[in-house]
Protein backbone atom coordinates (compact mmCIF):
# COMPACT_ATOMS: atom_id res chain seq x y z
CA UNK A 1 0.00 0.00 0.00
CA UNK A 2 1.37 3.40 -0.98
CA UNK A 3 0.69 6.35 1.30
CA UNK A 4 0.76 9.93 0.15
CA UNK A 5 1.47 12.49 2.83
CA UNK A 6 0.90 16.14 2.08
CA UNK A 7 2.01 18.91 4.41
CA UNK A 8 0.23 22.22 3.91
CA UNK A 9 1.43 24.85 6.40
CA UNK A 10 -0.71 27.64 7.90
CA UNK A 11 -4.13 26.06 7.49
CA UNK A 12 -5.09 26.54 11.12
CA UNK A 13 -6.00 29.91 12.62
CA UNK A 14 -7.22 30.75 16.11
CA UNK A 15 -10.59 32.48 15.71
CA UNK A 16 -11.59 32.82 19.40
CA UNK A 17 -9.68 32.82 22.66
CA UNK A 18 -6.03 31.88 22.54
CA UNK A 19 -5.03 34.13 25.43
CA UNK A 20 -4.93 31.45 28.12
CA UNK A 21 -7.58 30.30 30.57
CA UNK A 22 -9.51 33.12 32.18
CA UNK A 23 -12.58 35.28 32.68
CA UNK A 24 -11.76 38.17 30.35
CA UNK A 25 -13.59 38.79 27.08
CA UNK A 26 -10.49 37.60 25.20
CA UNK A 27 -10.31 34.32 27.14
CA UNK A 28 -12.22 31.05 27.29
CA UNK A 29 -12.35 28.37 29.98
CA UNK A 30 -13.53 24.84 29.13
CA UNK A 31 -15.34 25.54 25.89
CA UNK A 32 -17.55 22.59 25.05
CA UNK A 33 -19.29 23.45 21.79
CA UNK A 34 -19.49 26.01 19.00
CA UNK A 35 -21.87 26.79 16.20
CA UNK A 36 -21.30 29.18 13.33
CA UNK A 37 -23.86 31.50 11.77
CA UNK A 38 -24.24 31.94 8.03
CA UNK A 39 -22.33 35.22 8.39
CA UNK A 40 -19.45 33.41 10.10
CA UNK A 41 -20.09 34.59 13.67
CA UNK A 42 -19.21 31.98 16.30
CA UNK A 43 -21.36 31.11 19.32
CA UNK A 44 -19.37 29.35 22.06
CA UNK A 45 -20.63 27.33 25.04
CA UNK A 46 -18.01 28.41 27.57
CA UNK A 47 -18.89 25.94 30.34
CA UNK A 48 -16.54 26.84 33.21
CA UNK A 49 -17.17 30.57 32.70
CA UNK A 50 -20.95 29.90 32.81
CA UNK A 51 -21.63 31.88 29.67
CA UNK A 52 -22.35 31.86 25.96
CA UNK A 53 -19.98 34.05 24.02
CA UNK A 54 -20.43 35.52 20.57
CA UNK A 55 -17.28 36.11 18.54
CA UNK A 56 -17.99 38.20 15.46
CA UNK A 57 -15.97 37.60 12.30
CA UNK A 58 -12.43 39.00 12.72
CA UNK A 59 -13.16 40.02 16.36
CA UNK A 60 -10.36 40.05 18.92
CA UNK A 61 -12.75 39.80 21.89
CA UNK A 62 -15.95 37.94 22.58
CA UNK A 63 -19.29 39.32 23.79
CA UNK A 64 -21.12 37.51 26.58
CA UNK A 65 -24.69 37.24 25.27
CA UNK A 66 -26.12 34.73 27.77
CA UNK A 67 -25.17 34.20 31.40
CA UNK A 68 -22.78 36.13 33.62
CA UNK A 69 -19.09 35.27 33.66
CA UNK A 70 -18.33 32.97 36.59
CA UNK A 71 -21.80 33.27 38.18
CA UNK A 72 -24.06 30.21 38.35
CA UNK A 73 -27.82 30.28 38.62
CA UNK A 74 -31.09 28.60 37.78
CA UNK A 75 -33.13 31.54 36.49
CA UNK A 76 -33.58 32.13 32.75
CA UNK A 77 -30.70 34.59 32.46
CA UNK A 78 -28.06 32.52 34.28
CA UNK A 79 -26.39 29.25 33.34
CA UNK A 80 -24.66 26.60 35.39
CA UNK A 81 -22.94 24.38 32.83
CA UNK A 82 -23.58 25.38 29.22
CA UNK A 83 -22.30 22.55 27.07
CA UNK A 84 -23.96 22.74 23.64
CA UNK A 85 -25.24 25.50 21.36
CA UNK A 86 -27.38 25.28 18.22
CA UNK A 87 -28.80 27.99 15.95
CA UNK A 88 -32.31 27.62 14.56
CA UNK A 89 -32.52 27.30 10.77
CA UNK A 90 -33.48 30.98 10.34
CA UNK A 91 -30.96 32.03 13.03
CA UNK A 92 -33.58 33.78 15.14
CA UNK A 93 -33.12 31.49 18.17
CA UNK A 94 -30.13 29.99 19.95
CA UNK A 95 -30.67 26.74 21.85
CA UNK A 96 -28.40 26.11 24.83
CA UNK A 97 -27.97 22.83 26.68
CA UNK A 98 -27.38 23.84 30.31
CA UNK A 99 -26.07 20.49 31.56
CA UNK A 100 -25.66 21.21 35.25
CA UNK A 101 -29.18 22.69 35.42
CA UNK A 102 -30.60 19.69 33.50
CA UNK A 103 -32.37 21.85 30.94
CA UNK A 104 -32.32 23.20 27.39
CA UNK A 105 -32.98 26.92 27.04
CA UNK A 106 -34.14 28.80 23.94
CA UNK A 107 -33.06 32.41 23.52
CA UNK A 108 -34.36 34.89 20.97
CA UNK A 109 -31.51 36.57 19.13
CA UNK A 110 -31.62 40.26 18.21
Automatic annotation (TrEMBL):
Q: Which InterPro entries match?
A: 6-blade_b-propeller_TolB-like (IPR011042)
Protein name as it appears in the record = Uncharacterized protein
| Species | Adineta ricciae (Rotifer)
The taxonomy runs:
Eukaryota, Metazoa, Spiralia, Gnathifera, Rotifera
Amino acid sequence: MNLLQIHIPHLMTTVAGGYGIGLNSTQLYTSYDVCVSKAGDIYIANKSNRRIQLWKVEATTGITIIGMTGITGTNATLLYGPSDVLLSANESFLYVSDNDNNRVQRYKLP
